[in-house]
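User: Hi! I'm working on a homework problem where we have to compare a predicted structure to a textbook description. Could you give me the structure for the chain below?
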Amino acid sequence: MYDPLQQKPVSFWCTCYFVVACFVPQIDGQTDECIQYREIPALVHRFAAHLRAQGLRKGDVLCVFASNHIHYPIVSLATQLLGGIVTDINPSYTKGSFQ
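Assistant: Happy to help. Predicted structure tokens:
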């Protein structure tokens, strides 16, 4: 059975790692927390393992109810790695927005 967490990184990750490993793609403007490109694959795989342990399977939908956050790309990529679908809900929506 195919297990995406047991696969070697695709060439995209390898290329990005060597070309831009030192660059910072994500910076939190409020806390100054940074995520570098070289950290992304490990963070994605670790969160994907957590999602799988929580029962997320291929075809499941993960709804993210959060404002913009530095870790959103990690959540999104981890969900997609497992074959899940990501949908967003903005916390500033009102009750009427959902109808």
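For your comparison, note the following. The radius of gyration is 15 Å. The domain at 4-98 is CATH 3.40.50.980 (Rossmann fold). Good luck with the assignment!
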